[in-house]
Amino acid sequence: MKGDDYMQGRHFWTHFCCGLVVGGIWGAWICWGLFDSRLAFIGCTVAIALVFAFAVGYWGDPLWRRLLDWWGW
Fold first, then answer.
1. pLDDT digits over 3-55, tens only?
2. Cα 29 → chain centroid
3. What does the alpha-carbon distance between residue 46 and residue 8 come to, in Å, rounded to a whole number?
4. Fewer CB atoms < 10 Å away: N or C end of the chain?
């Protein structure tokens, strides 16, 4: 994939998929006590997961490093 744009290449989608999983877990943890409605819980979790996935897909490895440092890993 030499010469490909980052957003069209494999790296973006690798970071996006990993971010979707981590963002879903993190979103569920955040939204667990906020809502009584299951629909609101699912909507909030999906929204956080998508925003997180696009962010780590766009910024890539530097964002992962900052997050791991922030989380204390």
1. 556 556 678 889 999 999 999 999 999 999 899 999 999 999 999 999 999 99
2. 13
3. 23
4. C
Check if the beta carbon of residue 45 is closer than 8 Å to that of residue 24.
yes
Q: What are phi and psi of 3, to 5 degrees?
A: 90, -5
**Phi then psi for 2, rounded to 5 degrees?**
-65, 135
Instruction: Kindly report the three-state secondary structure assignment for every residue of 39-73.
Output: HHHHHHHHHHHHHHHHHHHHHCHHHHHHHHHHHCC
Kindly provide the b/e burial profile for residues 20-48, where b requires at least 16 CB atoms within 10 angstroms of the residue's own CB: bebbbebbbeebeeeeeeeeebeebbbeb
Pair 5, 19: CB distance under 8 Å: no
